[in-house]
Write a structure and sequence with these properties.
Chain A is mostly helical and 313 residues long. Chain A has eleven helices and two strands. Chain A has helices at 3-24, 28-48, 52-76, 89-111, 121-131, 136-144, 146-164, 186-209, 217-233, 245-268, 280-304, and strands spanning 175-176, 307-309. The interface between A and B is large, with 97 and 79 residues.
Chain lengths: 313, 113, 97
Amino acid sequence: MTLVFACEVVLAGLLVAIATWTIVARTAFAAIVLFMVYGLLLAIVWVALSAVDVALTEAAIGGGVTSMLLMGAATRLRAPTTPVADVGLPLRIAAGLLCALVTTVLGAVVFFLPDVAPTLAPVAKDNLAASGLGNPVAAVLFVFRALDTLLEKVVLLLALVGVWSLASDEAWGGVPGLPVYARPGRILVFLAQILPPIGIIVGIYMFWAGASQPGGAFQGGTILAAVWLLTMMARLQDVPAINARWLRLLLVVGPTAFLAIGLAGFFIADSFLAYPPGIAKPLIIVVEATLTLSIGVTLALLVAGPPERLSQR
Amino acid sequence: MSSAALFGYCGAVLVGLGLYGLITRAEVLRKILSFNVLGSGVFLLFGVFARRGAAAGLGADPVPQALVITGIVVAFSATALAVALLVRLNKETGQIIVTSDDSEESSEQGATR
Amino acid sequence: MRLALDIITVVLVSAGGFFFMAGTIGLLRFPDTLTRLHALTKVDNLGLGLIVFGLLPQVESRLGALKLIVIWLLVQMSGAIVSQLIAQAVRRSGRQT
């Protein structure tokens, strides 16, 4: 057993322990904090699996924005009038047996995997040069399986429309009820003044470097969303009303540009979402840039929630 | 046991844990947390398949990695919608659990009357 | 030369690891929130700083070294600010744990 493998065993054990603690924690607040820790540990596991792009995405979205969303919800929930009774012991035992069965089956799947794994890595590597990108994951996301990414962006917008539709009729078109500090102390304002410029540089750098190194539009866009949420929570900027024109424009510019370039592929290349060989990389950069903006705005608005009042004051 | 297989077993255990939490916790927020743990276990299994597909000088097969990135983003959108539904439910009814049928509610009202 | 750099790395990273362990023991064993915050700042500043300086001899390019130092400064700043926020919240709520 090498030292690296011993460290990985410790990491896997820690991950399972934190996940168990998250499930059995007594208060919701403790469970959410543990979930945040779980997300960051999982990012380290992704690095151990040589999937650095996934590690960045997990740290940003899984450990970052999801925890922010859940924490905001936990503080907004009123305590129930009648105490919540957990399920009885027979159901627990039955559920435990079912989950043990599922775990055993999945473990057997992992155990009986063939020795030579089927892989698409050589195919991806061969076609990488033609796409002009250096990062194979970015090439898969934006060239080889670009349709998945386009549809994923549409799913994000659909989820946002779903969240907005939960507003009451009077508040439609108004300001989302993001929990903001009523009187933010000087320290929080200091953080919200120092961190966003750094965050914007890091976010744009991560999108730009994603063409040839681990990174990409989703990771960069999440960082932009996070620093925007920070400035809104520290009351340095007002939460925008959802019928603001600039907001809706930023939301749709990403998928629209992606769709337009995809449709143009009918005329200048072979088919939908095909890129002509010479200008593939500039087109992909345009798509990724607009997508970074849209993803930043969409994720921030998903965390902000449905509109709750008509104007800021 | 290779490191990929180790994390594969870890992912299988996480799926079981998440499923257990999803079934047994009554509060909706805890169910959402368990659903996220379940989803990350599934993604970890994908990552194991990617790692085993290392070839042609790459550390891992890029196609499952792209699928996992897509999956993480979509799981976040589902979580956001679920949380918005929960907050609205709580605002309307003051509950943080979802009761299943009317007979339970009427028997509860009978108990308080 | 290579050996000297490796020795520096091992010594500094081990020292950083020792501060991490000390901070974690403090987090687990100290009685209330304010003392636990005090223990954690040792981890952020000294522990991470020693590890970063220990890794600097192993980096190939200046840009990589700059990135490591920027990471350390960002963690220090965010750690200090979050500690202040938690301490303010503890003082306002009046609880001690």
